[in-house]
Design a protein that fits this description.
Blueprint: E1 6-14, H1 19-34, E2 39-46, E3 52-59, H2 62-70, H3 72-84, E4 85-93, H4 98-106, E5 110-112
Parallel strand pairs: 4-5
Antiparallel strand pairs: 1-3, 1-4, 2-3
């Protein structure tokens, strides 16, 4: 598997009246992701009107992505999150590995492999 950093940019629209539920689930997702090896960053950004959210995730490599996808945060909590929000966009930067790529494409993620750059 690739040893390059992988980033996710997830665009969510929060359903009317579901902000409290959304925030509680997001907090549980943060707590779960903190326990995952190779999860480097997991940042939630809310719009001023609290109707849009951007989740920016950074993983050490494809192995960390696969662990996240197979773990309880994605398997148990993402379905609950999607009861409170709609997925409006999902972009992946880097190589998440072959299995993760297929799964991510299946939910509409756009994969952008590294073309050129500097990553320390």
């Amino acid at each position: 598997m690739s040893k390059q950093t992988v980033r996710f940019n997830v665009n969510l629209a929060i359903h009317d009246g579901k902000l409290d539920a959304f925030q509680a689930i997001a907090q549980d997702m943060i707590a779960g992701t903190q326990k995952e090896p190779g999860a480097l960053a997991y940042e939630w950004h809310l719009s001023a009107d609290r109707k849009q959210c951007r989740l920016i995730e950074t993983y050490a490599d494809a192995n960390a992505v696969q662990a996240h996808i197979n773990g309880p945060v994605v398997q148990q909590l993402v379905p609950k999150l999607l009861e409170a929000a709609t997925l409006n966009g999902f972009e992946v930067y880097g190589d998440p590995g072959p299995q993760a790529t297929e799964m991510l494409k299946g939910i509409g993620a756009k994969i952008f492999p590294l073309w050129r750059g500097l990553n320390r």
